Amino acid sequence: MALNLDAIGKKIGPLTKEYTWKDVVLYALGVGAGFDELEYCYEQKLKVIPSFSIASVFEFLAEVAGSSNVDLSGVLHGEQDIIFHTPIPTEGTITSEGAITHMYDKGPEKGALVVAEAETFHSNGQKLFTNIFTIFSRKDGGFGGDPGPSEKVEFPDRAPDFEEQANPSPDQPLIYRLSGDVFLLHADPEFARASGFEKPIMHGLCTHGYACRAVIKHLFPGEPERMSRFRVRFSRTLYPGESVTTQVWKVEEGRAVFRTINAENGDVVIDQGIVEWLSADEMERRKEWGAIRFDDRVAIVTGAGAGLGRVYALELAKRGAKVVVNDLGGARDGTGSGSEAADKVVEEIKAAGGEAVANYDSVATPEGGQSIVDSAIDAFGHLDILINNAAILRDKTLAKMEPENWDAVMDVHLKGAYNVTRPAFVKMRENRYGRIILTTSGAGLYGNFGQTNYSAAKMGLIGLMNTVNLEGEKHNIKVNTIAPVAATRLTDDILPPDLFEKLKPEFVAPMVLYLSSEQCPVSGAVYNAGMGYFNRAAVVTGPGAVVGDGKEIPTPEAVAASMDKIKSLEGAEEFPSATAAFGPMLDAFSPKKKEAVTADSGGPTVSKIFAGMTSVFQADQAAGVDVVFQFDISGEGGGSWQVIVKDGVCEVAEGSHGSPTTTVKMGDEDFVKMITGELNAMSAYTSGKLKIQGDLMKSQLIEKLFKF
Ligand code: NAI
Fold first, then answer.
1. Domain made up of 606-705: CATH architecture
2. How high is the mean pLDDT of the chain?
């Protein structure tokens, strides 16, 4: 099977993982730390070994292997480069997101490289580290691609400045694997022998942890948080119990090169190592890095002369952004204009030491929108953030809503957002970075008497967001929507006076700043915000019901009789796109799917899956295939099934086959999850939930031969 070149650029994640101090300590023990380095092993004053970062995003690596379709029987972890942005906290939730960035072709006999990059953020909002993974796939070369760059570290022509010997225990992989990499090769003697090794081998990433400890010990002892980069190439395997020596050459202040050798036979097991670290001064500056900052970012805030927009502009500028303060300066109903509102906010920003320019154009015309974006480019050279916030009100009930009032509100809110977002999107796309905020309202999300025009425009913005979200994804442009509640000119005669006091716009701004920041991993979401209370609003879709048989048109009476099921939101889902939302409708009428997994009203079970297996068999994919898959599914709902594919025909029978080509072993619940798409096959395999014996290559045919 060939590499899936289409996987390049496709987003992987967000993958979220929670960890506690115990995970940090378990990792440290797994990479050989002990009483000598108690700071890594004892919860009092605990510090995280920086290489923990790769163990903590192991699932990402599994996803990369899965989506690139590498031939698993020839895969090795080639290189790992980690850039550290802030010290890793000892507990929390981390979210990693990234993509495969390159696939390089080293030649038909030489293999291929799959390179992926992931950024990881902590639940405290800080960007922790960037991992650049290189998977070496021995059997996937020769697809005609670029061979890629070849970078080489020059080791100085002198003895190493430092050497650190370590003696991993013969049982080391059994501890290390508890940090996530439970691949059988490191624990199962039978599997190791079948893979050509005399016994289970050390995880390359375990030796990587030893090397990381060694360089810290000699270059910046006791201060792992100073590490800013750690790059290695994995070159040889190592058996547990073999001693290793890490050799380090300091090439300049803040940079060293290193390698780790098998102390017993001199084999280089980790090669081409580069470590970089920060000086004490840089560490001081780094303390600021964790904060949400907008240095070198350029933001436009429309309608920033008053109310919420003014506060957003001030807060962005306080944190380093250069701001275009746009405001038409008219009355609440949109009549009139003036430069005073925008100018005053610009003065306030400058008085506080920030940078800003005023713009007085109306968002209500395409020319105005273009000119607002041009202001940002002319003054600051680029554009990163757009907050669509400008507002007018012309409240009337529907019966009294004349077209001019309808149009005026549409023009500022809905068309206004289009007018500015379009040229802004074009600029952001050029830079492959953007954050766009749209402003909706409870009136749009939930309805408000007397605001038909405003409600319609505000809900229209959610539609705009949904599609800009899809179009911006590959350009790293994130778009979200805020539904604020705040005391401003817009609400001074609507909100009760006692509430008005508590509803300072400052309480909304933190969410808008977060959504505007580099740290924000979210896109396509709507948040309510006011008084310091925040929640998410979303469109969800119920599971629904099939009325009739999908051939005869059902009667309205039949629909009425099924309304209980149709309107139920039990088990409701959010869909990322209209295409995805169409899926359940298609599936509802797919006879294969129904037979395969929903033979009765209950959910899918292992026996139902095998009962429907022949109906999901893809005969057109089976030319020349001659295999026997043995499935041994453990657990209460499990059993043994043999699936024989030969001459384009598939037969399924209960029981065990005498000489299967490939045997698949799995727990019943995991098996159902994997078949229904809840569990990724690759992560099931690498996490040990899915075990494969016999011909590993042939197991990859299962996905091709059966479309569940
Ligand atoms: P605001 O009336 O205090 O500020 C809006 C600003 O937009 C004004 O300074 C105005 O001059 C400017 N503006 C109006 N038309 C413009 C145009 N064509 N071009 C450029 N600027 C223009 O309003 P507020 O409350 O700060 O509203 C901010 C956003 O939040 C609006 O989108 C509003 O619909 C939304 N919102 C506010 C709520 C609240 O409780 N204040 C509730 C729900 C939504």
1. 2-Layer Sandwich (3.30)
2. 90
